[in-house]
Structures are given as C-alpha cells and as structure tokens.
Amino acid sequence: MTVSKTADVDAAKPPRPSRKANGEGADEAASLQLGELSELLGYSLKRAQLRVFEDFLNCVAPLQLTPAQFSVLLLLDRNPGRNQTEIANTLGILRPNFVAMLDGLESRDLCARMRSTNDRRSHILTLTDKGRAVLARAKKLVATKHEARLNEVLGPANRAALLDMLAKIAREF
Amino acid sequence: MTVSKTADVDAAKPPRPSRKANGEGADEAASLQLGELSELLGYSLKRAQLRVFEDFLNCVAPLQLTPAQFSVLLLLDRNPGRNQTEIANTLGILRPNFVAMLDGLESRDLCARMRSTNDRRSHILTLTDKGRAVLARAKKLVATKHEARLNEVLGPANRAALLDMLAKIAREF
DNA sequence: CGGTATTTGATATATTGGATAACAATTATC
DNA sequence: GATAATTGTTATCCAATATATCAAATACCG
After folding, report:
1. Contacts of residue A152 in chain B, CB cutoff 8 Å?
2. How far apart are CA B168 and CA A2, in angstroms?
3. ipTM of the predicted structure?
4. What pLDDT, in 10s, does the model give residues A4-46?
5. Chain centroid to CA B67: how far?
6. Which positions of chain B have pLDDT values less than 50?
7. DSSP labels for B31-89?
8. Which among B166, B50, B67 is positioned nearest to A165, based on CA atoms?
9. What pLDDT does B61 receive?
10. Min Cα–Cα distance to chain A from B104, Å
11. What is the CA A58 to C1' C9 distance in angstroms?
12. Which of B78, B112, B139 sits opposite A33 (nearest CB)?
C-alpha cells in the first residue's frame, strides 16, 4: 500500500490563526502532537539548551559576550599560565577553531597571548585588566539576571538537581 | 598594571602525559579547574546535549538517521495531513532549511510530499511504508539502546525528573 | 650529537545548522 | 477585481564544527 498521489483525506485545513502581527510571534502551527518526541531526552535537552543560551545572550548583551567567550574568560581567570591547547581542550573547542576565537577576544583587549619562555611554541593566555573587568561585570549579569531567573522557574533545589544530572550525563554517559 | 610581554611567571610546564595512542584519546589537558563553569547551567546543558546526541547517532547508526530526521519521522507519523510549514514550525526548523531536509528523506523514500487538493500551495507530508518501517526500527533502537542507557545512568525517577525540568525550561523560561 | 617524531599555533578548507531576502504560484481579504 | 498574505523554494550568508597541512619549536632515542 503506497501513498496515493493526491491527499483527498485529512484535508489540509489547520486552525490557521491567521494573525501574525501579535506582540512577538512564536505560536505557529498550534495543536500539533509531539507524541514520543516529548519523551525523547535529547529533544528536550536541545530545546532547553537553545532557550538557555538565548537568554544568556540577552542578559549579557551589553557586554557582547557569547556563552563560549564567557566560558573562555572564566577559564583563563581560574587557570593562569595555560596555553591555547589546554584551554581549548577543556572547553571541547578544536585548536584550529580556537585561533579565531582568541583573535576576537584579543582584538577587544580582553585577553593576551604571550610566548612562553619555557616552550617557545606555546602561547600563555592571560586576562587583561579590561578582560577581568568585563568578566566581573558579566558574572554579575549572569548571576542576577540569567541564573536568577532559572532559579525562579525551577526552584533552587530543582536547579541543583538538574545541574547534577547534566554533569553526570556529561561524565558517565 | 598591564600584562608584560613574556610570561616568566607560572611556567608553562603542564603534566604533559605525552601518550596519545591510548585506547581512544579524550583525557587531554587534565587538572584544569572549571571553576564557576560547573555552576553554569547552560554549560552543562550543552555538554550533556552533545553527548546525548552523539550516543543517539551511534545507536541509530544502522538506520542512518540524525536526531532531527528522527523527530521529523515521529511527527509525520503522529500528525498525518500536515504540510511543511506546520511540521517545520513545531520542530523549530525554518521553512527554507526544511526543504533540503525533506529532499533527503524523500530521496530515500522515507516520506513523500503531495499537493493538497484544498490548498494547492501546500505539500501534505506523509510517511511511506518504508518510512514507517524505518521509524519502527529506529524507535526500537532508541528505546533499547539509547534511552535504556540513560535510564541506567540516571535511574528512572531521575530521568523523569530531568525530562520534566527540561520541558519546563523550554516552556516557561 | 643528530636524526626522527611530537607538539603548538596557525592556515586553509569543507561541512553543517541556522538565518534572511526574494520569488512564483496560490489563496485570502476587502 | 486589486491588493495582501501564505506556501514552497532558491539563493545567500553567517556561525559552529571538522580535517589536513604547515613551520617552528621541542622531545625522544639510538
């Protein structure tokens, strides 16, 4: 039983809200059944991740920092004296791709590379004073706007439990 | 206090494991402190999502289905008689990008588009018999290999709680 | 010591996912 | 019936991700 060439069954006449210029449109195609999709952990994971990143970008917008850039600044602050390979590896960034990323941060005077005296191949990465200042401001924005809102939605206990489970997946899965 | 041009402090001499041909290398740059990074929900979210998708790909590899393709097949099965815009919207896929995706599925005879008799602009999407068969096999692989392993790692109760929180984020955040 | 293999940062490049603009065909609206 | 809106599509564009390769520097090993 193959498909017939025209669909005379299940007429294509969805609710068709037909309004689009409301506040900020994002309710398209209502009444679709997700089915097993809502039981797929990967699906919910990706959806949640996209929203969280979107909110992060909004919250840190005044500083023009992406989640990836913020994570680099955080790592540089916590781990002085490391080179590009080390930082990139711990963040799961490939060395070739990390070059352009550092170029961006360095051109904004947020961090600096300097050749190591021990191993003249590697570049020791450091935060500049401006980088430290921006990081401090970013941390504050993230804590008071981004993570605070997550705490509101989930509740502190749930938020902690969520974090634990995500870390467990990244670690043991 | 700006940065000096060469780093004579914090010598760049990491543990340097110096072995790379072990089983499957992924332990690079050990002993780096994540710091506040491990408290960033977005960071753990993304890391977990990447691992889960990676495992999904492995589990469904015999069927050559990506998570996105699987979600399309699932949606088509649950929602017959819908057009491209509706399916794409519910999955968060932009209509232009959905075209190539459908081309791929259709060229493998997993689904088919047919012009609606009601609205001759829209394409009604249907699963083919092969599409249904592949979907059934994929579901089985996902359930027995992918989700089962997640259940092992998290435990059923935690897995359910995790799913709820992720859905809540995608919904209320 | 000297030659080979590794490592580091870098470049070039390919692939993929995701986003916008524009267009023809069709339908809705007034 | 004229204008606006919708659908699928194409053409781009941008960002993230992946691989191969390279020169410089270092490690390794006979």
Report:
1. none
2. 40
3. 0.85
4. 333 333 333 333 333 333 333 333 445 899 999 999 999 999 9
5. 5
6. 1-29
7. T---GGGGG-HHHHHHHHHHHHHHHHHHHTGGGT--HHHHHHHHHHHHSTT-BHHHHHH
8. B166
9. 97
10. 18
11. 33
12. B78
Nearest to B7 among A42, A46, A114 (CB): A114
Token pair 């352009």 in the structure block, residue = A100
Long-range Cβ pairs for the range B97-102 (8 Å, 24+): B101/B68, B101/B69, B101/B72, B102/B72
Domains along the sequence of chain A with CATH: 42-172 (1.10.10.10)
Within window 100-139 on B, which residues have Cβ closer than 7 Å to strand D?
A: 102, 113, 119, 121-123
Which H or E element spans position A39? none
Tell me the C-alpha distance between B145 and B139, whole Å. 10
- The shortest C-alpha distance from A84 to chain B (Å) reads 11
How, if at all, do strands B111-115 and B123-127 pair?
Answer: antiparallel
pLDDT tens-digit readout, A100-137: 999 999 999 999 999 999 999 999 999 999 999 999 99
**Closest of A34, A131, A31 to residue A77, by C-alpha:** A131
